Amino acid sequence: xxxxxxxxxxxxxxxxxxxxxxxxxxxxxxxGETVTEMGYKVKQGDAITVNGKLLExxxxxxxxxxxxxxxxxxxxxxxxxxxxxxxxEDVKERVYPVGRLDYDTTGLLILTNDGDFANLIMHPRSHLxxxxxxxxxxxxxxxxxxxxxxxxxxxxxxxxPCKIKVTHKDIKHKSTSLMxxxxxxxxxxxxxxxxxxxxxxxxxxxxxxxxxxLKGMKxxxxxxxxxxxxxxxxHLAQQSAQKPY
Length: 245
Ligand code: URA
Hints:
- By secondary structure, the protein is of the alpha+beta class.
- Helices cover 23% and strands 29% of the residues.
- The chain contains six helices and 17 strands.
- The strands form four sheets. Strands 7, 8, 9, 10, 13, 14, 15, 16 and 17 form a nine-stranded mixed sheet that branches. Strands 3-2-5-6 form a four-stranded antiparallel sheet. Strands 1-4 form a two-stranded antiparallel sheet.
- The mean pLDDT is 94.
- Uracil binds next to helix 5.
């Protein structure tokens, strides 16, 4: 017997959080009866429907996508914009992005139908390293870099320490290129951090997440993440969640 929200998430339909929302809002039936009780136990063979669709078990799959610009990190957009899942032409499983990159951000994005894995990676306690290439609209100085590296307040919460390496300063055009390594993934974190010290991010690219990177890949390309790589990511996420930050 397993908890209803877990079974829905494990079927690859959505994350566990989303499953809980659907249960609470009366969109889930077990053997024809609407169930709103969180933690309801389901038995082998129970027929579960979500939004009127019968749930079927899917194999767990994991993809790494080189997200190009102008695509949203979602499976559906009400405004009809292109979604990251539109790029996965031969993937039949219902995968969804693990976290998000902004519309104009490029780089590494993981997609999966494994709700437990997605929750683990996205959990605020999981501090997987993420490296971004950033271009700023100005010449940043050592003081601002130091503030950012030691942590600044975003919505009243201090960011974790991070590492920044300036790679180029274009004096003529007044812009700075740099790499920033973060251990967390708050919403629009990179852009908001630089905005907090008076800069606008004009280009943002995620190079890596944990040990995964985009070596040999072009924008729009994707590949399966190997079982060994999935295992390493899980391990790193679990291990980092135990570190006292
Ligand atoms: N930080 C941002 O500000 N945007 C992204 O897309 C990713 C990280």
